[in-house]
Amino acid sequence: MRKIINRYIFKEIAFSFVIILFILTFVLLMGKILQIMDLMINKGISVFAIAKLIFFLLPSLMLFTIPIALLIAILIAMGRLSADNEITALKTSGISLMQIYYPVAIASLITFIFTIFISYFLVPQTNFATKRLLFNIVQQNANIGIKEKVFNSDFKGFLLYAEKIPVNKNYMEGVIVSDNRIIDEQNTILAKKAFLVSDPESMTVKLKLENGSIHTVSSDLKKYRKIDFNSYDINLDLSTALANLDASSKSSTEMSMTELLNKMKKPGMDEVAIRELAIEVHKKFSIPLSCIFFGLLALPLGIKSHRSVKSRGFAVGIIVVSSYYLLRIGGEALVETGHLSPEVGVWTPNLLFAFLGIYLFYMANREISFWQTAYIFLMRRTGKIEV
Questions:
Q1: Which of 253, 48, 277 shows the shortest CA–CA distance to 131?
Q2: Residue that wins the pLDDT comparison between 374 and 232
Q3: Are 213 and 189 in contact (CB under 8 A)?
Q4: 324 pLDDT exceeds 90?
Q5: 189, 209 Cβ separation under 8 angstroms
């Protein structure tokens, strides 16, 4: 009998979880869709490359949507059971809240294992794979990162500006280039048209300028030189960018646990960099563990009978999640500025929500109303009720 009840509650949670996870992940992905569609439509990037890019983005998004989806799914499932008086029927049949929590705990444990696998293995690899994929795309179509009427400083020693970039064209119009490679000279190049052509073998991108002029001013501002040209080529070296793809120069979100710990042990590391690495180390465990704490907190919050089950579940879930991530962001900011240790800054939100979940679970298990208890306490403090 209890196995049937456990399966029934677990299915209620699982069904809502899958739907909410899909919706939340899709909503977060929508923030990238416009940029991705621009790559496909205006820049001519293949559908296969776009599909790979979306696939690489999913783990980092799911790392945050899985705990949120679990919390809201439990709130909705428990709210529906309470609204239909099924929780009351289960308690009348002698089933305690601790036994009802069993399928919730199983769901929380499964999502915890899945999330820690994503955090520990998938996110570093897919983040790094995303960087490499984007760089390969830029190599194949060098004008992807260039936007019209925007100064671009992606190429070392050059500042590039394009007045107009025609749609579905591989050239720029009204180009201004500031060449800072020579310290004692400032070269400004004006051209009516320019092309960016990549050469993967030599790891360079060539900027081909047409119908323009080169304006040179000496460092003492006493000499000026102008050279007109019909065609002028500039090699933009990408070897530095390629070198940044090795493991030693990965960002903290692209490193595995071993790489993070090894880099923290390197002598001469800056304290700010060490704190950033430490935050990432603790986040690999603290974010997955939030699944356990959210499950513990969602059960007592969800078993309150209410007509608008889904809307109430979403509302309470958004409030809880917003509070959790505000605390997390604030804690990480204090760690980065050196006001808190990484352990305190990262783990405080989890501990607070764990204690709150245990307290609310205890109150719900004893069928003690929090608001009634608070009201009685206030009445006693004001002397309106004698002890």
A1: 253
A2: 232
A3: yes
A4: yes
A5: yes
Domain layout of the chain by residue ranges:
2-138+258-382, 146-239
Q: 350-369, pLDDT tens digit by residue?
A: 999 999 999 888 888 877 66
What is the tens place of the pLDDT at every residue in 154-166? 677 778 888 888 8
Label residues 299-330 b or e (16+ Cβ within 10 Å = b): bbbbbbeeeebeebbeebbeebbeebeebbee
What DSSP element (H or E) covers 150?
Answer: none
pTM of the model: 0.73
pLDDT tens digits along 183-217: 667 788 899 998 877 665 555 678 888 999 988 88
Q: What are the C-alpha distances in Å from 7 to residues 10, 11, 98, 100?
A: 5, 6, 15, 11
Sign, CA torsion 81/84/87/93: negative
Q: Which tokens go with 94?
A: 């002698």
Q: Which residue has the tokens 């304006």?
A: 215
| For residue 135, pLDDT beyond 60 | yes
For residue 289, pLDDT over 90 is answered with yes
Q: Which two tokens stand for residue 271?
A: 């304290």
**What tokens were used for 148?**
């019209």
Query: 229-266 burial by CB neighbour count: b if 16+ within 10 A, else e?
Result: eeebebebbbeebeeeeeeeebebebbbeebbeebbee
Q: Which long-range contacts (CB under 8 A, 24 or more apart) does 44-47 make?
A: 44/141, 44/168, 45/137, 45/141, 45/144
> What are the structure tokens assigned to 219, written together?
């460092």
Report the mean per-residue pLDDT for the chain. Answer: 81
Residues found in the chain: 387
